[in-house]
């Protein structure tokens, strides 16, 4: 186990320069008329945590669904651009084929199987893998190791667990597929700050110990930029800014628009000049 | 008292057959949240195909109907037909309706009902036929001797077959990987899709399972009442069973079936004379209505889990 981890660690260093997930100038249209993404390009390096930031309706979820190909089930169409994972075009694959290649999405709003127990939820996550009972049990233990709370509630129906537990269940379920890249959509939604912190700590743990890469869509810019190494800011279906997490945290505009801070620290909305609040990077 | 038990047992046994039909509905409802109106038509289709193939076997190979070879041959061909039907339904109906409102799917199954009925009659003709599956409808001797009760051997065998089928399906749903995936799809299509469960394959499996149940139900009902268009509607007897037992529960379908079967026979015998008989055709629906007021999700139905 240790050897394996060390080996893949070395491979990670080697592959760091090579592109891992590459989204290239993607345009998405819903229902044949609504243009949602207007040419989004981004990259996730192997072993990285990349944050995709932006307000409601900016196109974060759509970007993730474009990559995981859940879009087609929602009447969305990729009309331009390409998605590549480890050098292979993946935009025409079904979600099933993508999961088998190691890309899995944890959907916004958890989406646990409400009538299945937590443990059954996790087991379903291994659907795409043909493994023995013993391997399955070992993988289950591995998930419980990261989410001890889930072990306590393993026999409860997922629908009756708390929001935080459901989010953990959703991430744990994805882990059961042994993914290399998890597309994590709004993990902080509707959760208490303490739970959000707990979940992000686990994400970071998974990233360092299991070499799982993350593409993270978040509205909670502050937290996301603390755990990610790189960030993209989306607005109206376009990437309007990108940079290392540190650079974005220090950027004046980001501070004002997304972190609610400005040079003088926090200030009241009454003092904010109107025209400045209306400013958009790409009008 | 012997008479009471005779009626009760006859009721329970026929209830088992209702349960069998109800089971087909439960399977599809569990996996796709749709009330499959076409289940009755599938029962008719299966029974008619079975009889039709039997006739052809007699014509071409000289296998007598009722013989083991003929039974097995017809069974296999009909099974294959049900599988093909399931694949076609998935390919041409369900796939195009992914993510549509449930009412759209429901309407589609109503259309499917008429299509399957028509298809069956087009291929095999619409005249009423008998169906022989080799079990005589005569009283069980030892029960007659020991307790002086008349219990039909046919009903008893049919109930046993239904019970075995139900047990197998319950185990399948509860303990296999595919069964778990089926329940997962029933809960949340999108989430199932997101973790790589191929919905197309799941739907084919469910419709094949419902087809097999329809085949067994078709054989038993057909052998009892003859293979005729009315078979398509006996399936509607499953409706009160489902309301009683819950749409999503396999044990619910059984218990519901038993309660409906027993109560309609008892009501017919003991209450019937006061109102001029014929109770058993509407009594189950009255029970279902009453039940809807008291416990709308049924005895064993899944409660809708709502977190706020």
Description:
- The complex is a heterodimer of chains A (about 280) and B (about 300).
- Helices cover about 40% and strands about 25% of the residues of chain A.
- With about 280 residues, chain A is α/β, with parallel strands linked by helices.
- Chain A folds into two domains: about 180 residues, 3-Layer(aba) Sandwich (Rossmann fold); about 35 residues, no CATH class.
- In chain A, strands 6-7-8-3-9-10 form a six-stranded mixed β-sheet, sandwiched between helices. A four-stranded antiparallel β-sheet of chain A has the order 2-1-4-5, with helices on one face.
- The longest helix of chain A is centred in the last third of the chain and has 18 residues.
- The N terminus of chain A is likely disordered.
- Chain B has one domain.
- Helix content of chain B is about 75%, strand content about 0%.
- Chain B has 13 helices and no strands.
- Classes of the chains: A alpha/beta (about 280), B mainly alpha (about 300).
- The interface between A and B is medium-sized, with 36 and 23 residues.
CATH class value of the largest domain in chain A: Alpha Beta
CATH topology of the largest domain in chain A: Rossmann fold
Structural class estimated from helices and strands of chain B: mainly alpha
Average pLDDT of chain A works out at 87
- Number-wise, the strands of chain B total 0
- Span between termini of chain A: 52 Å
Per DSSP, the total helix count of chain B is 13
- As an assembly, this protein is heterodimer
Helix content of chain B: over 70%
Layout of strands and helices, then pairs:
The complex is a heterodimer of chains A (283) and B (308).
Chain A: H1 2-15, E1 21-30, E2 34-44, E3 49-53, H2 60-68, E4 76-85, E5 88-89, H3 95-101, E6 103-106, H4 118-125, H5 133-146, H6 148-152, H7 163-175, E7 181-185, H8 193-210, E8 213-218, H9 221-227, E9 230-235, E10 238-244, H10 245-250, H11 252-257, H12 274-278
Chain B: H1 2-32, H2 39-61, H3 68-94, H4 102-124, H5 141-146, H6 153-175, H7 177-187, H8 189-194, H9 199-225, H10 231-234, H11 238-245, H12 250-275, H13 283-294
